Amino acid sequence: MKKTLYTILALAVSFIAVSCNDVLEETPKGQVLTNSAFTHSTDLESAMGVLRYKVSRASFYDTQFVQGAMGDDWATHPASNKAAIREFDCMEISTGNSSLKQAWHDMWLVIKAANFIINGADQTPDVSEEEIARYVNTAKFWRAWAYFDMVRTYGALPLVTTLDIDYGTGLTSVAGIYDQIIADFTDATALPNLNENGLCPEVAPGINNDPNSGAAHAMLACVYLNMAGWPLNKGQEYYKLAAQECEKVITGPYYYKIYPKYSDIHSVACNWNNTEAIISVYYDDQATNSNDSSLMTRGGISDFPDGPGIGAYNNTRGEYKFYYDFPEGPRKEAVYYPHCMQDGVTVPFWDSSVPELIQFPYFGEKGWPNKGEYAGKEYNKSITFDHQCNGWDMQAHMLIRLSEVYCWYAECLARTGGDLGKAADYLNQVRNRADGAETNMYSAGMGAEKLAEAAYNEHRWEIAGWWPATQSCFNDLVRLKKLEAHYNYRKNPTAFNFGGENFTEPYGPVETWADWRMFVPYPQEDAQRNPNLNVDPSMKITDEFINGTEVITQ
Fold this sequence. Notes:
Elements: H1 20-24, H2 41-57, E1 74-75, H3 83-89, H4 98-118, H5 129-154, H6 174-188, H7 213-228, H8 236-251, E2 277-281, H9 300-303, E3 317-318, H10 320-325, H11 330-335, E4 336-337, E5 340-342, E6 345-346, E7 362-363, H12 385-388, E8 397-401, H13 402-415, H14 420-435, H15 448-462, H16 473-479, H17 483-491, E9 496-498, E10 501-503, H18 524-529, H19 543-547
Antiparallel strand pairs: 1-3, 2-8, 4-7, 5-6, 9-10
């Protein structure tokens, strides 16, 4: 068993916020809440332990990334107790939505924990400047990651970079938030490279779960890619910047490499030292030697169906159109779960023996055996989920993989008049693995437009249903302004034939499309505390909220 991933604190820092204001508003009661806490050399690692823990809790369940349901790859149960997620799936989200509150809350906790280190680490005695810089830049990496998630989800945000309390923090425009994100990730590129074992540094033996310079460059590539599209529409200049960052990851002094088989990516065997994962969040229930479920993740139980003989929650399931369009081959077989009704008998979702309420394609990437004789083995699709898995597991949540960088690089080259032969080569590396054969279906002769669209598609197939992905299908739809088409499709869905039967999405949006739907609302509780969050949704896509240079106050 791997040793401690998290240093869970003797340092008593309480992070119990539920809003931007709550992130700042606390009753100390003896907790260490100021940067004067860094009085011993061990305090810095203790504070970093808090930050790692907050990152893990902001990543451990699908409800933190529920905006991914707005994409075209996954949806949720048509009935049951999934109303909060269904609102996201329909892109018609109420301000009192419980998942909205949780997603907002958890990212603010990461920002607060990061700010604690950034604003106090330099006071730590008996620690070298080099080590302090590593801790600060690691904290900046995670602060930028949290803001990057939030700015693409909510739009303009309060920008909080200090420990100061301000109950009426104004909103910084989307462009202003991106400026901070770029500054933080740029500083994080000064983090060390991977060592000869592919690790840097080892937070636990054999595990690279702190960001390194390659991860920072990969994040910058993703940031510039998004800035090139909606809502900032920076265009070619930023596609070129994204391509430059991709090239640094691909050709840099790192040890990343893609697996020859797609099924290896999410395997148990590759979980702790994944060569394709550029940055991951790791989980370990042995971290405190107490089998503490708070150090584990909820993965497969949310992704598998809740039908007879399966025993999962069915928070997520595949959309028919996405499944229909998904190219056949080993990648599709690894991504989707065929539906297991009873031990030894597997049937496709369209089989008449499957209850109607769960007749959907499901994602199997988070199947993680941890019960009895199956513990530590690879997931067996012919045995029911509840025989192999319980509700908690230790699967790493990969935030960015090398194959994604290949897709981004190819798209950016195609969109900027770059080397189309090189773009085709990187896409072929991704697609050949997906097909399980050297199909080499992409070529420079396809032209820039078709190669760019192919890169977009290959990326979405690579990360289908993987809700921890930094760049989800939802994010791709937004930056390319394809979300409206998906909204209208879900409003009037097409029937797809599987096994001789027609299947149509069972629910969808009912309102008229508007571009402000590409941002979700601020939580109601927070808008009541901070009037600057109490804005009409249509205001969020105005130039003031997107490109403004002044802090927006109500």
